[in-house]
Design brief:
Blueprint: H1 7-15, H2 21-34, E1 40-43, H3 45-60, E2 71-75, H4 102-109, E3 113-118, H5 152-159, E4 165-169, H6 176-182, E5 185-188, E6 209-213, H7 216-226, E7 256-260, H8 270-285, E8 289-293, H9 301-316, H10 335-346, H11 349-362, H12 368-391, E9 394-398, H13 413-418, H14 424-429, E10 433-441, E11 444-452, H15 457-470
Parallel strand pairs: 2-3, 7-8, 7-9
Antiparallel strand pairs: 1-3, 4-6, 5-6, 5-10, 9-11, 10-11
Helix pairs in contact: 2-3, 7-15, 9-11, 9-12
The structure holds glutamine (GLN).
Glutamine binds at residues 124-127, 150, 170-174, 202, 309, 420.
């Protein structure tokens, strides 16, 4: 039963010696080993048990912190010393990181126990976790459906109770969308809040790490550790980290909620729309006020994102060339053959597509027409939010236009890109956003999206926590868990 507990509950259980970290870790490891979700690329049994023993010692000596001895799944995009960091790609399959990402370092310093590295779409590109070199991840609510992506292994691990908490990264929705599709809580912080150092880069101006958990309270506990300035990341912002748990209990009476009319138009599944509206009513019942707002440039988020992100990835991924680290082809004839074949054999189709789109859009003849234009529209999208936040405190809407889709149902990339319609714009603006369980449609979970102004993580977590105090959607579990 330990696996059903939240991080906050586990923390108390450890402190009160109801169980040890070793017992807890063994319990989760055995659940992972019996699971058929394919949520992990690497399971780090020995390391986890070493960390758990060290944590138990700290607990026994009275030196434990709040997260000491709590197991977690680490998205395989974060570098971890001595452990494979593949980012879901064949090209990094041989890569054993010689150093820790700042997030890895921070979680280690909090004495947390890493169970393993979670499966993900190759190099964080995708919305279904079907693009991993290590095979698709299954949705614990229905194993014929996708868990969402790219942090699909992380979301499936938490929803399937294989781990109480998992890390994720969100470039265009990869924390919020899998959280939504798997019925758990996920927060994508303000750009610059969590260090990107040691996180395999996809699109550097958009990437941001955050936690996936059962509850907002757990997300707050973990954010206390993950967030903070890092001089190793030039885009990290030097701003004090509040105690994210402090305001969770505040009343949300008077909270002004905006519903963007563009988020409730054509293409939104009616069951999802009803679930979202019922959740919004719940906020009204708690004393929030609701008004319609407009984000007029919403329709441009997909084309803008799918220019900016491929441009940045085509540049970031040039370092994976078969020379420095990662996969190298057999018997290269000469240097050009080595580059060509290592990259051709090492990258999957979706990654290659994006590198090509990016290289094309950045080329001298097309730069102004595509990249520069996309940057201008990006600015307009940010301005829409700026205006909206003059009138409201939090923007709410769906995360995804549908619930989890069947494995294998997207046969072309563009239809998959279209499913990102509600998540991309806030990454383009750098804003924080959350997904919280809001109900079910067709027996599959629906996530409510909360979007806040810059640095409003405390408010988002507070609103989410208040909602979770009134509802029990977050406590629902897939059958058989
Ligand atoms: N689905 C989006 C993409 O494929 C977002 C991925 C992400 O946030 N890492 O780019």
């Amino acid at each position: 039963m330990m696996h059903k507990l939240t991080v906050a509950e586990l923390s108390k259980g450890l402190k009160n010696k109801e169980f040890s970290s070793v017992e807890l870790t063994e319990h989760f490891l055995s659940r992972i080993n019996q699971s058929d979700l394919n949520a992990f690329i690497t399971v780090t049994d020995d390391l986890a048990l070493d960390q758990a023993r060290a944590a138990d010692e700290k607990i026994a000596n009275g030196n434990a912190g709040i997260l000491t001895g709590i197991p977690y799944a680490h998205k395989d995009i974060f570098c971890t010393t001595g452990v494979k960091t593949s980012a879901g790609s064949k090209i990094l399959d041989p890569f054993i990181s010689p150093y820790d990402a700042t997030v890895s370092h921070k979680l280690n310093s909090a004495d947390m126990v890493m169970l393993g590295k979670a499966n993900m779409d190759e190099l964080a590109m995708g919305s279904s976790n079907e693009k991993s070199y290590y095979g698709p991840v299954k949705n614990p609510w229905n194993k014929n459906k996708v868990p969402g992506g790219s942090s699909g292994g992380s979301a499936a691990a938490v929803a399937g109770r294989l781990s109480p908490f998992a890390t994720g990264t969100d470039t265009g929705g990869s924390i919020r969308q899998p959280a939504s599709l798997c019925g758990i809580t996920g927060i994508k912080p303000t750009y610059g809040r969590v260090s990107r150092y040691g996180m395999i880069a996809y699109a550097s101006s958009l990437d941001q790490a955050g936690p996936l958990t059962q509850t907002a309270e757990d997300a707050a506990l973990v954010m206390n550790v993950m967030a903070g300035f890092d001089d190793k990341d030039s885009t990290s912002v030097d701003r004090a980290v509040p105690d994210y748990t402090k305001n969770l209990g505040n009343s949300i009476e008077g909270l002004k909620i905006g519903l963007p009319k563009e988020f409730f138009s054509e293409g939104l599944d009616s069951g999802v729309a009803e679930t979202i509206m019922a959740a919004v009513k719940e906020f009204e019942a708690m004393g929030a006020s609701v008004q319609e707002i407009s984000l007029p440039n919403s329709a441009h988020a997909i084309p803008t994102y799918y220019i900016v992100a491929p441009c940045e990835c085509s540049s970031n991924l040039s370092r994976l060339d078969g020379v420095r680290y990662g996969y190298r082809c057999e018997d290269p004839k000469d240097l050009e053959d080595l580059y060509l074949r290592s990259r051709s054999e090492g990258f999957g189709a979706e990654v290659k597509r994006r590198i090509m789109i990016g290289a094309y859009a950045l080329s001298a003849g097309y730069y102004d027409a595509y990249y520069l234009k996309a940057q201008k529209v990006r600015h307009l999208i940010s301005e829409d939010f700026k205006k909206a936040f003059q009138d409201v405190d939090v923007i709410m809407g769906p995360v995804s236009p549908t619930t989890a889709f069947d494995l294998g149902s997207f046969t072309d990339s563009v239809s998959m890109y279209l499913a990102d319609i509600y998540t991309l714009s806030l990454n383009l603006a750098g804003l924080p956003g959350m997904s919280i369980p809001a109900g079910f449609s067709n027996n599959m979970p629906v996530g409510l999206q909360l979007i806040g102004n810059y640095w409003s993580e405390e408010l988002l977590l507070n609103a989410a926590h208040q909602f979770q105090a009134q509802t029990d959607w977050h406590a629902q579990m897939p059958e058989g868990v």
